[in-house]
Amino acid sequence: MDNKLAAVVPEAPVVKFNEKKPMRQRIKEFIVDYKRQWEIQSMVIPGIIFMIIFCFIPIYGLSIAFKNYTVIDTLDSAPWVGLDNFKIILSDKYFWDAVVNTLGISFLKLGIGFIIPIILAIMIYELNGGRFKKFVQTVSYLPHFLSWIVLGGMLITWFSTTGLFNELLLNIGLISKPQNILLDAGKYWWIATLSDIWKEVGWGTILYLAIMSKIDPTYYEAAKIDGASRIRQIWNITIPNMKSIISLNLILTVSGLLGSNLDQTLVLMNSQNRVKAEVINSYVYRMGMTQGDFSYATAVGLGVSIVSVILLVTANKVSSKLNDNQSVL
């Protein structure tokens, strides 16, 4: 009986997974797909050209980090010095001061500025009034679209001896005489952190609001039936559904710990607060563009980029371990 069934029922085809196709076949399939969607595919070409010109070709310029390059040299004619520039970095006191300032400001932004957009997004999402909700979103988004030249000028005016903040502090009684707050180096880290949060907190809520808008409302209805409070619903429904985008933003934030807002620094930094305001990006700018030491500045930038990649990979690995080995990148 079994033999008769075997003769009637054909054998199931063997499906091979992860089978690599020959290169010629893959190229042929790519050409066929491109011809079928050439209008859409062609829209990518300007972006590819832009990346090649401004992202890939300049990579060759990183070679000056291992050379003694001057403005009278070309990339090929500059003499090789090996790792001498990197040895100078390790013994440069001003560079390490910039590293300390960068990490100090970055950790403050990570500890405060990473949480506030999440809280603000949840608060906006919980608002019922349509007009008031749009008003809050508009007001919180607005500073993002203003350049640091504009916002920096506002802050310089507000923090001056006759500015808004001194008037408020005098009226409250916290200070006895006005002082220019931006000239106090000890307060600069907080000024840089809070002003950056003020500028970007509204913009940072966009991704979170987009994720929350896709949460199934029946989850909240079921929670209400079970007697869950609004706080409990946020903790058990809203935040778990935001876990992937929170992990992604955390990874990108950690990878950028050694990067700081150059525009903000150049606007708010002065001779009095430089000791606490000088960050790696402004240090690289000053060494390269102001003092003309292009090789040293390139070496610093290359070293920071390598460390940032290491931080990115490490943060992604840690995040995947915490998310059941599921990476968000």
Please tag this protein with its features:
mainly alpha, 19 helices, MetI-like fold, 329 residues, disordered N terminus
Provide a concise account of the structure shown.
With 329 residues, this protein is mostly helical.
CATH level-four homologous superfamily name: MetI-like
Largest sheet, if any?
A: none
Integer average pLDDT: 85
Low-confidence stretches: 1-18
- N→C terminal distance: 54 Å
CATH hierarchy, class: Mainly Alpha
Protein name: Carbohydrate ABC transporter membrane protein 1, CUT1 family
Membrane topology: Multi-pass membrane protein
Keywords: Cell membrane, Membrane, Transmembrane, Transmembrane helix, Transport
Organism: Paenibacillus macquariensis
Write up what this structure looks like:
The chain has helices at 2-8, 23-36, 38-42, 45-56, 84-90, 93-113, 115-126, 130-141, 148-158, 164-172, 188-200, 205-212, 217-225, 230-241, 243-255, 262-268, 274-277, 280-290, 294-322. With 329 residues, it is mostly helical. It has one domain (84-322): MetI-like (MetI-like fold, Orthogonal Bundle), CATH 1.10.3720. Helix 5 (84-90) crosses helix 19 and helix 15 runs antiparallel to helix 19 (294-322). Keywords: Cell membrane, Membrane, Transmembrane, Transmembrane helix, Transport. It is found in: Cell membrane. Residues 99-315 form the ABC transmembrane type-1 domain. The chain crosses the membrane at residues 44-66, 103-125, 145-165, 294-313.
Tell me the layout of helices and strands.
Layout: H1 2-8, H2 23-36, H3 38-42, H4 45-56, H5 84-90, H6 93-113, H7 115-126, H8 130-141, H9 148-158, H10 164-172, H11 188-200, H12 205-212, H13 217-225, H14 230-241, H15 243-255, H16 262-268, H17 274-277, H18 280-290, H19 294-322
Helix pairs in contact: 5-19, 6-11, 7-12, 9-16, 15-19, 18-19
